[in-house]
Amino acid sequence: MPAVTVPDITVLSRIDAVDPQTSTERPVKSLTSAPSGFEGEGFPVRRAFAGVDLTELDPFIHMDQMGEVEYAPGEPKGTAWHPHRGFETVTYIMDGTFDHQDSHGGGGRITNGDTQWMTAGSGLLHIEAPPEELVVSGGLFHGIQLWVNLPRADKWADPRYQDLRGGDVGLLTTPDSGALIRVIAGDVAGHRGPGSTHTPIALVHATVSPGARLSLPWRRDFNALVYVLAGQGTVGSDRRPIRKGQLVVLGAGDHLQVDAATSQPLAEPNLDVLVLGGQPIREPLAWAGPFVMNTRDEVIQAFEDFQAGKLGTIPSVHGAPTTLTEA
């Protein structure tokens, strides 16, 4: 899981140590284990938010951990062309390579540590797939796709695409240099990530060394979620044990704490966590497949607009798939 790293973590800016006398640590509200499934043309995923009430996730609505999988030659898979409306997709690649193209002109290739941030807004068609050379060679693939809801006022905004290079993420460490903190979006301890968001959120990938502690200041008006990408440790004021594939919803407080176990699995030398949170939108939610709206009528209209070709057309690219799917 290389993502973005540095040869000497001690040269990075350090977040201030949390003062337990003035800062309240967030407790654990719930802990769930992500079930496994398949997405698109058949690539394996863990459904990170399965079984969690949407009110606890707001403004997030869905997240898949894609892989971690070692593909044999000919095995890498992606998705067919399909529509989105009313939300944003954030695809963060830790290992491997993914190509994206959409009907609004956005797109590009993302690889180790890169993020593509697609605001569907009023609607578009898009496709995500491994490049041909990866299909031929096979190889390691591991990433995250997060769906971020849009407030009512922004659901009809023009689509937008952000290409966030891994080298642009904010890099920080803890007072003892025990953790590498990658800020992808939002503000963490006064340091901003490159992602521009409609809804105030923060998105962090942290690698915590065995026996080390990550204490992050976290906005009190944000919710706070911790998803374990690899390794094991504890989280929250009650030191709840956590392991790979588990999601923790934290309660109210001023900071969150994650501790890496001294002993880690052989294939996972560190505790890797995705930390995310945002300001809840608290608006009615009507969600069906790739359409996330405020009312049932708006969802029906989205399906009708898609079927009428109003969400865009597939660009004429030699060799590109030309079939559409509704999810």
Automatic annotation (TrEMBL):
All residue ranges annotated as the Pirin N-terminal domain in the record: 43-148
CDD domains: cupin_pirin_C (cd02247), cupin_pirin_N (cd02909)
Segments passing through the bilayer: none
Residue span, Pirin C-terminal domain: 204-311
Stated family: Belongs to the pirin family.
Name listed for the protein in its UniProt record: Pirin family protein
Species of origin: Angustibacter luteus
Lineage per the UniProt record: Bacteria, Bacillati, Actinomycetota, Actinomycetes, Kineosporiales
